[in-house]
Amino acid sequence: MMRGSTEIDMPESSSVSKGTAPLIAAPMKEKGGYKKGIAIFDFILRLAAIATALAAAASMGTSDETLPFFTQFFQFQASYDDLPTFQFFVIAMAIVAGYLVLSLPFSIVAIVRPHAAGPRLLLIILDTVALTLNTAAGAAAAAIVYLAHNGNSSTNWLAICQQFGDFCQKNSGAVVASFITVVIFVFLLVLSAFALRRH
């Protein structure tokens, strides 16, 4: 007579190691790591804006041309300080460039602490003010440069750029540089808005 084999389930002893779960979860990577990349790009754009703003102010501020012919009583000369609009342009672009230089430490703080909202909020407010000043100066100077190139027959304003070519070329370059600075400011404001998002 054969004995039937029986299986007996034995409980595992306490010495057998079971799978253990860690009591403290591993720290997850903090969300919003893209904010540091935005802050670095913001810093680079500010350096570019400093260059364009200084170029605009320097180009306009050094625009001076004297025609080689003159009479006994008249000397034909054109300079930026002959027009208050161009004087305003030089002063405004110098202020914008100075502000951009002073904003660099705040941009560095935003790189070191990308989740800090205070410096970013301050920059977005001051950038808006600087953008307004920059746009006003560029638009005013652009109107005068347009008249210098084309004149206005209704008011008998003659185009002077045929005679003062170098003067008009420098002024036109300054206006273009100022509007490049405007575009950079718009990008800075968009970046700051993205950086202030909570999610």
What is the count of β-strands?
Answer: 2
Total domains: 1
* Pattern of helices and strands: HEEHHH
User: What is the rounded distance between the termini?
Assistant: 77 Å
Structural class from helices and strands?
Answer: mainly alpha
Structure description:
The chain is mainly alpha-helical and 199 residues long. It has one domain (34-65, 77-195). It is built from 4 helices and 2 strands. Strands 1-2 form a two-stranded antiparallel sheet. β1 and β2 form a beta hairpin. α1 (34-61) runs antiparallel to α2, α1 packs antiparallel against α4 (165-195) and α2 (84-112) runs antiparallel to α3 (117-150). The radius of gyration is 33 Å and the shape is elongated. The N and C termini lie far apart (77 Å). Residues 25-30 have low confidence and may be disordered.
Topology:
Elements: H1 34-61, E1 64-70, E2 75-79, H2 84-112, H3 117-150, H4 165-195
Antiparallel strand pairs: 1-2
Helix pairs in contact: 1-2, 1-4, 2-3, 3-4
What's the short story on this structure?
Homodimer and heterodimers. By secondary structure, the protein is mainly alpha-helical.
